[in-house]
Amino acid sequence: MTPAEKLFWSKIANRQFSNLKFRKQHGIGNYIVDFYCPEKKLIIEIDGDSHADSKTDPARSKYLENLGYEIARYNNRDVLYNIDGVFEDLLTKLSSL
C-alpha cells in the first residue's frame, strides 16, 4: 500500500469509522479495489498522480457502478494533508447510501 493508503487504512480498520467493516485490496470481477465496505456496497479508491489522466479508470468505474457499487475517490494529497476533510466528505456520501 502507498503511504496515503496506509494512513487511510489506519483510520478505518477494525470498525473505527462509523462502525463499518472495510476490506483492503478487495477483488471484484477482474479488478482490485483499494477499500471496500460490503454493508454499503461502497468502494473507496485512493488515487496517485498516475490516475489523473487514466484512460482505463472511467471504464473500470462504469463496470463497477453497473454492478451496483458506489465509488468514492480521493487523491493521495488529500488523504495525507486533509484527512479530516476526506472523512467529512465520506460521511456525507455515506448518509445518502
Automatic annotation (TrEMBL):
Ranges of residues in domain DUF559: 1-94
Coiled coil (residue ranges): none
N-terminal signal peptide: none
SUPFAM superfamilies, alphabetized: Restriction endonuclease-like
Sequence intervals crossing the membrane: none
Domain of life from the UniProt record: Bacteria
Pfam families listed in its UniProt record: DUF559
Name of the protein described by the UniProt record: DUF559 domain-containing protein
Organism, as annotated: Candidatus Doudnabacteria bacterium RIFCSPHIGHO2_01_FULL_46_14
